[in-house]
Design brief:
Layout (H helix, E strand, L loop, with lengths): L7 H9 L11 H8 L4 E6 L2 E9 L4 H10 L14
Length: 84
C-alpha cells in the first residue's frame, strides 16, 4: 500500500495555519474544546423564581460554522441535551 498523499490545499493550510476562506485552522481536538464552551443556563426573571427557562449561549462564528457544516441548527430543541 502506498502512503496517503497530502493534497496541495492541505499543505497550504498547514503552512499558513489558515483555511482557504482565511479562518484560523483548528485541529479536531481544538474544535471540540471550543464547542465545549457552549453553555445552557437555567434562568428566571427577577422576583419570579417560578419563571425558570433555559437560555443557550450564542455560538461564536467558528462554532456556528461547525454546526453549519454538520447540518445542525443549535437553536432547535432537538440539538439540546439537558442532563441534571
Amino acid at each position: 500500500m502506498e502512503p496517503a498523499r497530502v493534497s496541495e490545499s492541505a499543505k497550504a493550510k498547514a503552512a499558513d495555519k489558515r483555511t482557504p476562506d482565511g479562518r484560523p485552522a483548528h485541529s479536531l481536538t481544538m474544535l471540540l474544546a471550543d464547542l465545549g464552551t457552549l453553555t445552557l443556563n437555567h434562568a428566571s426573571l427577577p422576583g419570579r423564581p417560578d419563571s425558570r427557562f433555559l437560555l443557550a449561549s450564542e455560538p461564536t462564528r467558528l462554532q456556528a460554522r461547525a454546526f453549519e457544516l454538520l447540518g445542525m441548527d443549535p437553536d432547535r430543541d432537538d440539538c439540546i441535551s439537558v442532563t441534571a
